[in-house]
UniProtKB/TrEMBL annotation:
<keyword id="KW-0698">rRNA processing</keyword>
<dbReference type="GO" id="GO:0005840">
    <property type="term" value="C:ribosome"/>
</dbReference>
<feature type="domain" description="RimM N-terminal">
    <location>
        <begin position="66"/>
        <end position="150"/>
    </location>
</feature>
<dbReference type="InterPro" id="IPR011033">
    <property type="entry name" value="PRC_barrel-like_sf"/>
</dbReference>
<dbReference type="Pfam" id="PF01782">
    <property type="entry name" value="RimM"/>
</dbReference>
<keyword id="KW-0143">Chaperone</keyword>
<dbReference type="InterPro" id="IPR011961">
    <property type="entry name" value="RimM"/>
</dbReference>
<keyword id="KW-0963">Cytoplasm</keyword>
<dbReference type="GO" id="GO:0043022">
    <property type="term" value="F:ribosome binding"/>
</dbReference>
<dbReference type="InterPro" id="IPR002676">
    <property type="entry name" value="RimM_N"/>
</dbReference>
<protein>
    <recommendedName>
        <fullName>Ribosome maturation factor RimM</fullName>
    </recommendedName>
</protein>
<feature type="domain" description="Ribosome maturation factor RimM PRC barrel">
    <location>
        <begin position="199"/>
        <end position="243"/>
    </location>
</feature>
<dbReference type="InterPro" id="IPR036976">
    <property type="entry name" value="RimM_N_sf"/>
</dbReference>
<keyword id="KW-0690">Ribosome biogenesis</keyword>
<dbReference type="Pfam" id="PF24986">
    <property type="entry name" value="PRC_RimM"/>
</dbReference>
<dbReference type="InterPro" id="IPR056792">
    <property type="entry name" value="PRC_RimM"/>
</dbReference>
<dbReference type="GO" id="GO:0006364">
    <property type="term" value="P:rRNA processing"/>
</dbReference>
Amino acid sequence: MYIGFVWVTINVAHCNNFHCTRRSFPLPSTVLEKQRWCYCQTNATNQPSNNELQELYSPESFGFSQVGTIRGPHGVHGELKVVATSDFAHLRLMKKATRYLLLPNRKYPRPVLLLSGKKASQQNTFIIRLKHVTCREQAAELKQAKLFVRSGEAIELEKDEEYLAKSLLSMEALHMHSQLVLGKIVNVYTREEVLSDKKPGAQDILELKRPDGRHVYIPFVRPIVPKIDLERKQIWLDPPEGLMDISFEEIQKPPKIRAYLPAAKNEENK
């Protein structure tokens, strides 16, 4: 019954007394203590290694996904320079929302309000503002802190919101209401490409490959594409009746041989 308590007390007080063990162990009151308490009960005979403890306490094990690391202050008004660590950071660091901040030497991220964000001149770098961070000194204290979002957090499409084409490729497409798998996104045509004679439509177009191998063009507009989950790489579609039936089969054309090359001459026979 008390086997889980023995492991913790031995490491803290080096005491084998049963009653001492019972009195010295505090009741688990936080999420982290409860997690460690459960771990100790199931692994009381084997002390966990540092790697096991790091995995146990990692933010990912609590349902977070990292989007960036704070490199330091930017300017004198509390702005922060953040280096993106996710392919989708541009969608997470440029919009007012609740994010989660993990300070150095801390184990659990705490919620913070992201007020605004913009792209910096350096690649994969953003300038952001957090609530209650109003001067350079406060911003400097957050150096090397990490920013997280909740894993699986879905993003609803908004007017004029841009998604990088690469982030949509290979996403699994699901029906918004039936949850059936409709296929996979295999290509994205931007407005500029669509306006050419070779591409159909008048807006961004998603090319969907159905499970039967046939392809369908999906207009990339909010009524038809209401939601995208970037972390799970899933896209929800609400196609109008008949759209999924307008399909075509991709035809692989063999390369045309324009001309035959002359045989190579043997220099030794000259």
